[in-house]
Amino acid sequence: MTQTIRHGGALLTECLVAQGVERVFCIPGESFLAALDGLHDADIDVVVARQEGGAAMMAEATGKLTGRPGVAFVTRGPGATNASAGVHVAFQDSTPMILFVGQVASDQQDREAFQEVDYRQMFGPLAKWVGQIDRADRIPEYVSHAFHVAQSGRPGPVVLALPEDMLSGPADGEAAPAATLASGKAADDDIAEIVSRLARAERPFVIVGGGGWDGDAHSAIARFAAAMDLPVGASFRCQDYMDNGHPNYAGDVGIGINPALARRVREADVILALGSRLGEMTTSGYTLLTPPVPKQSLIHVHADPSEPGRVYRPDMAVTGRPGAVAVQLAEAARPVTGGRAAVARAEYAAWQQPEETPGALKMERVVAHLGDVLPEDAIWTNGAGNYSAWAHRYHRYRRWRTQLAPTSGSMGYGLPAAIAAKLQHPGREVICLAGDGCFQMVSQEFATACGAGANVIVLVCDNGMYGTIRMHQQKHYPGRPSGTALHNPDFAALARAHGGHGETVAADGEFSEALERARASGLPAIIHLRLDPAALSPKLRLEGT
Fold this sequence. Notes:
Blueprint: E1 5-7, H1 8-18, E2 23-26, H2 33-40, E3 45-48, H3 52-66, E4 70-74, H4 78-93, E5 97-103, H5 119-123, E6 129-132, H6 139-151, E7 157-163, H7 164-168, E8 170-172, H8 188-200, E9 204-208, H9 215-228, E10 232-235, E11 249-253, H10 259-267, E12 270-274, E13 297-302, E14 316-319, H11 322-332, H12 342-351, H13 363-373, E15 379-382, H14 388-394, E16 403-404, H15 414-424, E17 430-435, H16 436-440, H17 445-452, E18 457-462, H18 467-476, H19 491-497, E19 501-505, H20 508-520, E20 525-530
Parallel strand pairs: 2-3, 2-4, 4-5, 5-7, 6-7, 9-10, 9-12, 10-11, 12-13, 13-14, 15-16, 15-17, 17-18, 18-20, 19-20
Antiparallel strand pairs: 1-8
Helix pairs in contact: 1-2, 1-6, 3-4, 3-15, 8-11, 9-11, 15-17
């Protein structure tokens, strides 16, 4: 290809095209005007968000959905600090993502110029790699490196700072081809040993999670479990890694875990952790397995060789991309019988039986109705809050990547993730569950949905409080609520103000028709669910009620 001279922003755009980027999310800023100019004529969809945190979370959700880095552009200083929330989600959720941050001109650096920040220091603990491109002729090198790092090993976020004069100055070079990644396969001997250990076990259990999965792995783990009669649990907010309707699926090993499942994990003789870090949420505060040496025989498979042994000493540690290893295990499985999975499945089925909660509108019935009427490929998103517990407990995720939820526990994630999902898969239905507090952290992004034609349906679960914190207050400081009450707007009217569809529901009998009207509207929609504050969670009631 003949080399041409153009500004750095144009060369950067060419590099993104070469990497297969189809969409970027941004809040525009004067620090990267040349990059915006480069995007003007490119075959890349530019989605303009309303706040940098929302843009970064949209990019993170795109990385989850595609397995390739989602991309966001933000300006320096406040723009970068706002975006850090999305970078943290990507880091803890092992999602490939690249954040480009405008930076002050090179002749102004280290003067505390307007909005100047040292991004290597700022993002160092939050990203896999942080770099700054000081020479335009090195843009292809840095971008290629960024896409390799974001997708290799344990996937994660990369941050690249872009000095303003570097972007606007002349750039001589050409884009590098798309990143080439290692297969991530484990050694054949390791696969054989894993199969052998699980075949000999009396009470085996498999926990799936982490980054580096795909649709092939989703099918493979089901075949592997069926062949070897293995009960499988999903780590926190990874419930779509295996078909929840499969007879070997035993439930989610996360917050509000089925007590029978918790007991099963504790009493297992062999645990295969396939991709999961076995963090605090998946281990019930590091109690299901006791660090540093669990009583269960632990086989820990992870893409990052430094992860096994970081908290728990495994009996067997294997380096491999969990998706690739799942396929290998399915191919190497040997028949085992004995009904080891049947009892775990029965316990899961019993746990899914709804427990009635207070109020005229009950979340267990809302979730059940959604499961009945939505197609299996509908994508469910949520942020953080007790409201999400109803979906985690009662909904069965049947297809790969139908759940987008932050294992980092970040509030405000659901709406940006839903927008990204609808733009990525416009033919699929996308449902966002959001608490009243969670939604209001990103409610401005509903304007982004309306502007982009992302016809998501948002269920705002309004109980007038920060429910999770209120629950903890009830446990630790009973009778002394403080700082958790919320004064909320009319969320349905907010939807209509943006040009969307709005409904308010206060009783069970109203929900089904409201949902159908929202689905038929052809618009982004908000259904405002007025809930009884007494229903703190599927099991807990507010004190004094």
